[in-house]
Design brief:
The complex is a heterotrimer.
Chain A: H1 2-15, H2 35-41, H3 43-77, H4 82-95, H5 98-112, H6 118-143, H7 147-155, H8 160-190, H9 202-213, H10 216-245
Helix pairs in contact in A: 3-4, 3-6, 3-8, 3-9, 4-6, 5-6, 6-8, 7-8, 8-10, 9-10
Chain B: E1 4-15, E2 18-29, E3 33-37, H1 44-51, E4 59-64, E5 67-69, E6 71-74, E7 77-80, H2 83-90, E8 93-96, H3 108-118, H4 124-137, H5 153-166, E9 171-175, H6 183-196, E10 202-206, H7 210-216, E11 219-224, E12 227-232, H8 234-239, H9 244-252
Helix pairs in contact in B: 3-4, 3-5, 4-5, 5-6
Chain C: H1 8-12, H2 14-46, H3 51-65, H4 69-79, H5 89-114, H6 118-126, H7 131-146, H8 148-161, H9 173-184, H10 187-216
The chains are: A mainly alpha, B alpha/beta, C mainly alpha.
């Protein structure tokens, strides 16, 4: 109860440019600007951070999806040893946390002599992450199709490529769309982890702002809000597309 | 050029250790309609699936229009044909499945015209015209733009028949095509098949609909335990059955 | 490059790695237990007939699922002190991960709830059971069994999410790997071994949980 009241008090006071009561002795800040004027001052940094994050995310999603589809096809129909390699790749990547993947890539690459900056390393890591999840999705989607579809396609004389292109893939992709949208959102959220290797995206930008004006709670909340808006929009867009291409 | 559309010699097939077809011989002439009856597990469906190469078979030969399909015997060694040849072999037969297997993401007309465009390389116009022709022949002239999900079971099966026959195969295979239908929808499908017999198409029909088999067939085959037990005209098989197993089977059906 | 591999530094630090792994697993276990409590309650709210319950619970689930875990962690650890809530690093992370887990688990439990055939609930009502009794004695036991596969998946995800704790200096597995890397500069050895730990633990957990599922499953 007290906390809720404190929270309300804090947000309203800080928004209205008034002195916020410090709840600890060393917190008495006097004459601090309100939240919205600070936000306006910080708008450029935050905006470019958001752009960077989105750029990284979309590039990674695009590359990862393309690669992932090939991996998925290999997992479903491929011959050894390709299939085995794809399986090991998928299982390993999906078995390690995204943060560990990003850090591992970043450090390992510099040791090997490939010097990627934080942005490139981030795109690479997120892209690899995306490809493994998409690969598994595509495999599942293809293998879950009723076998009768392949048989009917064969019965009318379609060869494998034609069966795959005109019968199997269109159905599998529709099945996969919800899960894919989920993965896309996960990747957008994953851009926060690239702050750890120094990429100036939303979190780092937020931290820089906070370092100036100490409005920690407000700005972390705002960062959360930015991500919420982006991710929620992607989710909504995904549902809209699902409805449009649904099999009637 | 042989008059025999289909010639099967000593067909044997096993699933693992289980011998399912134990030496089947069968001949079909152009325009003949043969019904296959028998209990589940007698091998009827397996026989059909071997003919259109959805299943392997270990011994025996299948010839369509005098040409052996599925396997090549070179220097005494029997090998399966490559997938390209198998695909071409399959285009010689048209198969209608018990569970329809229509492609749900494209319209009925597109279901029919897909193979015409991609396999027979016909133009969009020609394929659409042929598809529309067959839509009319199965009694669904204005359902071409519907999706399978919007059609009843009987309508879907009729589209499936149109899809199979539109590729102009030498032989039509029907695998218990009414078994998955609600009773009131069965007749519309059977009527379509009856009307297609006029086209002179050679047909091999696996069915449980005894009355239909009696009315439509030139010959009827009773299969039991992987072999053809009785073969004859509809009258011989249904009215004057001499075989004990056949009599027992017919007694259990409502003929 | 590969000739100079020397895993001695890694072997020396096995204790630290084991500690980190244990800590990560504990964090995952705590958050899945607490998160499940939240998740079950929220799931019943999501499927409740009372509109205000549905709105609030939907808001919680949608809100948390669309915010990165790291922001929640930073918000709790760095932001909440602004209104007088000081949490230690471990507590902050557990708090954050539990809230995060709760939102995902609510969806899992909701899926399980709506897949209980309506007829079973109606049978309960016909025997005169109250709503609460139906929930506790009929729905909950069925729910817990049907939800096991999804729970296993979520547990593995939560285990991987514990790596984010390293950002606020909680000494779990990722933190330990980084420490070995920074202390000894044995980058390849540290990261190759570390990531393999994650992979094998994940595979191990998945196998164990699958055995559990089979044991607890409703007999068919």
């Amino acid at each position: 109860m007290i906390l809720t009241l404190r929270l309300i008090e804090f947000t309203t006071l800080s928004t209205l440019k008034m002195d916020t009561p410090g709840y600890f002795e060393d917190q008495k800040l006097q004459g601090t600007p309100g939240f919205f004027s600070e936000l306006w001052t910080a708008k450029n940094g935050l905006f470019s951070g958001a752009l960077t994050a989105m750029g990284v995310a979309f590039t990674a999603i695009f590359l990862g999806t393309v690669l992932g589809v090939f991996i998925g096809i290999t997992l479903a129909y491929g011959k050894q040893p390709g299939r085995f390699i794809a399986r090991v790749y998928t299982d390993v990547i999906r078995g390690i946390p995204l943060l560990a993947l990003i850090l591992a890539n970043f450090y390992l690459l510099s040791v090997v002599g490939v010097n990627l900056n934080a942005l490139q390393a981030g795109v690479l890591s997120l892209g690899i992450f995306c490809s493994s999840h998409v690969g598994e999705m595509v495999r599942g989607g293809l293998q879950n199709l009723p076998v009768g579809q392949t048989e009917a396609a064969q019965s009318i004389g379609l060869n494998f490529t034609q069966t795959f292109r005109y019968v199997l893939l269109p159905q599998a992709l529709r099945q996969i769309l919800p899960t894919w949208t989920n993965t896309a959102v996960e990747i957008v959220k994953g851009t926060t982890l690239i702050s750890v290797i120094g990429l100036s995206e939303i979190i780092l930008a937020t931290q820089q702002v906070i370092a100036r004006n100490f409005q920690t709670l407000n700005f972390y909340a705002f960062a959360g809000l930015i991500y919420f808006i982006i991710c929620f929009s992607i989710e909504r867009l995904g549902k809209h597309v699902e409805k449009k291409i649904a099999i009637k | 050029m042989s008059n025999k559309v289909l010639e099967i010699c000593n067909l044997r097939k096993s699933y693992g250790d289980n011998l399912v077809l134990k030496g089947v011989d069968l001949n079909l002439k152009q325009g003949e309609i043969i019904s296959i009856i028998g209990s589940s597990g007698s091998g009827k469906t397996t026989l059909l699936r071997c003919i259109n190469l959805l299943e392997d078979f270990q011994e025996g030969t299948i010839q369509i229009d005098g040409k052996e399909i599925g396997y090549i015997t070179k220097n005494g060694k029997r090998t399966r044909v490559n997938s390209r040849t198998a695909t071409q072999n399959r285009a010689l037969t048209g198969m209608v499945f018990q569970s329809f297997n229509l492609f749900p993401h494209i319209t009925a007309a597109e279901n029919i015209s897909l193979a015409l465009r991609k396999v027979q390389k016909k133009s969009q116009e020609e394929a659409t015209t042929i598809a529309q022709h067959w839509l009319e022949r199965v009694g669904l002239p204005d359902r071409g733009n519907s999706y399978p999900g919007q059609l009843s079971g009987g309508q879907q099966q009729r589209i499936a028949i149109a899809r199979a026959i539109a590729i102009n195969p030498k032989l039509m295979l029907f695998d218990e095509v009414t078994s998955a239908l609600d009773p009131e929808l069965i007749n519309e499908v059977l009527d379509v098949i009856k009307s297609l017999t006029i086209e002179g198409m050679t047909m091999l029909i696996v069915t449980h609909e005894m009355r239909f088999a009696y009315e439509v067939s030139d010959r009827v085959i009773f299969m039991n335990e992987g072999l053809i037990a009785v073969e004859g005209t509809p009258d011989e098989v249904f009215k004057n059955a001499h075989s004990d197993r056949l009599s027992a089977f017919l007694k259990n059906t409502k003929f | 490059m590969f000739k100079n591999l020397n895993y001695a530094a890694v072997w020396r630090s096995l204790d630290d790695l084991a500690y980190g792994l244990g800590l990560a697993l504990s964090l995952a276990v705590i958050s899945i237990i607490l998160g499940s409590l939240i998740g079950i309650v929220v799931a019943f709210s999501l499927t409740s007939k009372k509109k205000h319950l549905r709105i609030v619970s939907n808001g919680y689930v949608t809100g948390i699922r669309n915010i990165p875990l790291m922001i929640i962690v930073l918000f709790i650890y760095f932001g909440l002190p602004d209104i007088g809530l000081l949490f230690g690093q471990m507590e902050s992370f557990i708090f954050a991960l539990t809230i995060y887990a709760g939102a995902y688990l609510a969806e899992v439990f909701r899926g399980g709830l709506i897949s209980i055939p309506v007829g079973i609930t109606e049978a309960g009502m016909a025997s005169g059971m109250s709503n609460l009794q139906i929930n506790m004695f009929i729905k909950l036991p069925i729910l817990l069994r049907s939800v096991m596969p999804a729970l296993s998946n979520n547990f593995i995800s939560l285990f991987k999410d514990t790596s984010i704790a390293s950002v606020i200096a909680v000494q779990e597995l990722t933190f330990q790997i980084r420490k070995i890397n920074l202390d000894t500069f044995r980058t390849i050895e540290a990261w190759s071994f570390g990531t393999l730990i994650y992979v094998f633990v994940c595979i191990g957990i998945a196998s164990i949980l699958r055995i559990f599922e089979r044991r607890l499953a409703i007999p068919r």
